[in-house]
């Protein structure tokens, strides 16, 4: 179990450091006005997808490669993971995300006002209403986070079933996360992962931290719905993975 928890910590660290780091350092470069070298939404979406691919193939054989409390709870609901082990996984993921955000903050502190600017901008946090990149309200945020996390879980459970092609699972899951970000960055800045949301909100502070509850609750709701639904629809297939 120690090795599995360490793998979840490291995998979540990679996800937050790579995905949030891309959003903070490279999305708008050299500045939001000119952005001649920035990677934009597409680059951030690809970064999050790539972190999952990297984590799945490196840490997945040890822990299953969840890196996300919603995923852990969703696969438990589908009968793929022991409920008694969910608490340890979630703690490891939350800590991994917070350590990654702290490392990003330490790097930003070495720039000329970079840390203050990142915090003023929310530290790549998720939000709705005035904090949504596109000004989408709370209802839109609830729907997009619930639906897309459910989609994510359906793909994860299906791609990792024994009847699937296991060597391709990490790629399918990573590409799905990329697609999810392409859809929802304008709506909420994309969560589908409470560990990622909490890590950013702690450093975003203020209103960002005040809105993080939505990104803890509704990704988990979507994941649980998908897990129970997959098990109900496909029965034994859901439990084989």
From TrEMBL:
Primary localisation category: membrane
Subcellular location per the Swiss-Prot or TrEMBL entry: Cell membrane
Keywords: Cell membrane, Membrane, Transmembrane, Transmembrane helix, Transport
Domain of life according to the entry: Bacteria
One matching Pfam family: MIP
Transmembrane regions listed in the UniProt entry: 6-27, 39-60, 90-116, 136-157, 169-188, 208-230
Topology class, membrane: Multi-pass membrane protein
PANTHER family, A to Z: AQUAPORIN TRANSPORTER, MIP17260P
Family, per entry: Belongs to the MIP/aquaporin (TC 1.A.8) family.
Name of the protein in its database record: Aquaporin Z
Species name: Myceligenerans salitolerans
